[in-house]
């Protein structure tokens, strides 16, 4: 009881921040791999996420409760149920899966145009940039049709939701650090 009171005071004065983070994207995009890398610092190959999984971690001075909701078609039905309670959304796209890019675009647009509160930032990770033939940043922006949603790094989007695209490789551990620093600055 006393410890909770101390945390409440620290949170009130800005010394301690907590946030709920929803990690979504199509199946096999790298959601569980990223969560494992962030939490344990290890690359682990996972089987498809059958049910929502949550992990708690501290990044950029914020303690996140991160929810990996899965990306298969049945799991996507749960996304909207979690959205109202979230402080941020991470959408992961497999940049090497050109066959399913329009499916990813549909899901991402659904999130950006949903009833998600406007103050909830969305970070998009273009993952698997280490694979040959993957989309580059400009190609991915165009394919997902999110040029208007994404502002230049560091600029504030005064007209709507904070939204940014980062190109990442979990294998080479690149890009996701910048993404989470940006995300922490938005919260």
UniProtKB/TrEMBL annotation:
Membrane topology designation: Peripheral membrane protein
Compartment(s) of residence: Endoplasmic reticulum membrane; Golgi apparatus, Golgi stack membrane
GO cellular component assignments: endoplasmic reticulum membrane; Golgi cisterna membrane
InterPro entries according to UniProt: P-loop_NTPase, Small_GTP-bd, Small_GTPase_ARF/SAR, Small_GTPase_SAR1
Lipid biosynthesis among keywords: no
Catalytic activity: GTP + H2O = GDP + phosphate + H(+)
GO biological process terms on file: intracellular protein transport; vesicle-mediated transport
Binding site for Mg(2+): 27, 32, 49
Record's signal peptide: none
Molecular function GO labels: G protein activity; GTP binding; metal ion binding
Keywords for this protein: Endoplasmic reticulum, ER-Golgi transport, Golgi apparatus, GTP-binding, Hydrolase, Magnesium, Membrane, Metal-binding, Nucleotide-binding, Protein transport, Transport
Enzyme nomenclature, EC number: 3.6.5.2
Keyword Transport found: yes
Residues binding GTP: 25-33, 71, 127-130, 171
NCBIfam families in alphabetical order: small_GTP
PANTHER family the record matches: RE74312P (PTHR45684)
Similarity comment text for this entry: Belongs to the small GTPase superfamily. SAR1 family.
Name of the protein: small monomeric GTPase
Originating organism: Magallana gigas
């Amino acid at each position: 009881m006393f410890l909770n009171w101390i945390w409440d005071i620290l949170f009130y004065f800005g010394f301690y921040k907590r946030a709920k983070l929803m990690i979504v994207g199509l199946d096999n995009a790298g959601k569980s791999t990223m969560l494992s890398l962030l939490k344990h610092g290890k690359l682990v190959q996972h089987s498809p996420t059958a049910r929502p999984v949550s992990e708690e971690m501290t990044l950029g001075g914020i303690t996140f409760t991160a929810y990996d909701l899965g990306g298969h078609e049945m799991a996507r039905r749960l996304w909207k149920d979690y959205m109202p309670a979230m402080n941020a959304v991470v959408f992961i796209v497999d940049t090497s899966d050109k066959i399913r890019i329009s499916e990813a675009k549909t899901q991402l647009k659904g999130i950006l145009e949903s009833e998600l509160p406007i103050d909830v930032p969305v970070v998009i990770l273009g993952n698997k940039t280490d694979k040959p033939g993957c989309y580059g940043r400009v190609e991915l922006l165009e394919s997902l049709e999110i040029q208007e949603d994404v502002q230049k790094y560091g600029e504030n989007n005064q007209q709507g939701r904070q939204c940014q695209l980062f190109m990442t490789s979990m294998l080479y551990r690149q890009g996701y650090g910048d993404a989470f620093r940006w995300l922490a600055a938005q919260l």
